[in-house]
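Reading group handout, session on sequence-to-structure problems. Before we discuss, look at one worked example. The prompt was deliberately terse, the way you'd type it at a terminal:

> structure Enoyl-CoA hydratase domain containing 2

The input record follows.
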Amino acid sequence: MLRTLASALRWRPLEKTRGCASSPVDAGREIQVRALEGLDQGITEILMNRPSARNALGNVFVSQLLEALAQLREDRHVRVLIFRSGVKGVFCAGADLKEREQMSEAEVGVFVQRLRGLMNEIASSAVMGLIETTRGLLPGAGGTQRLPRCLGVALAKELIFTGRRLSGMQAQALGLVNHAVAQNEEGNAAYHRALALAQEILPQAPIAVRLGKLAIDRGIEVRGLWVGPWNIPTRDRLEGMAAFREKRTPKFVGE
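And the output record:
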């Protein structure tokens, strides 16, 4: 199921059209985007490429990532989004503490708000450790808001108060991550697992997947939220019913 990506695929800057090859200047961007092709068309990857700081969340990094997410949100070709690290051996080192040390209190407040917005955009709970208290800081919004929902308040407090680091297997056992895989020689085993999962999601009806995500995310915050009626008038719902009746594979268009 895991296929080798075609060598013709290139990372592209946000300003160019889909499928364009990247230039040497683009290679210096901390956030790069590419859309996969062929059978994987509909899957888009965001490459985090800040090796000098182990992909730490600095101002430029966050700005480029927010820009990428804003543009991809309006791209109807995108059905599944994969975050990928271009730095071997690390995914994201968290907030850039060296950069933050140079900020004024007002600047720190603004930057924390931007980080909170970024975490809400990504809506990711892949937390491997909330070590902020070991640096005299508070965990970000992604940790303090979502961790109790995954683990319960008592265990969430324990992880935050101790600043404990977790291995992938420990995080999976606690329910913090869905999958933990043994590393391969290339150091990209997690990426291949993510790609395989994206390939499972890709054939499903885009609107139904989007509404399912909304129902889960918002349902935690708004009791009684029901988005089913929003899906009733869609062409994809009618296509799914027709395909079931005609015993064929549905062809979803995201409408």
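Points for discussion. First: Residues 1-11, 13-25 have pLDDT under 50 and may be disordered. Second: The two ends are 28 Å apart (CA to CA).
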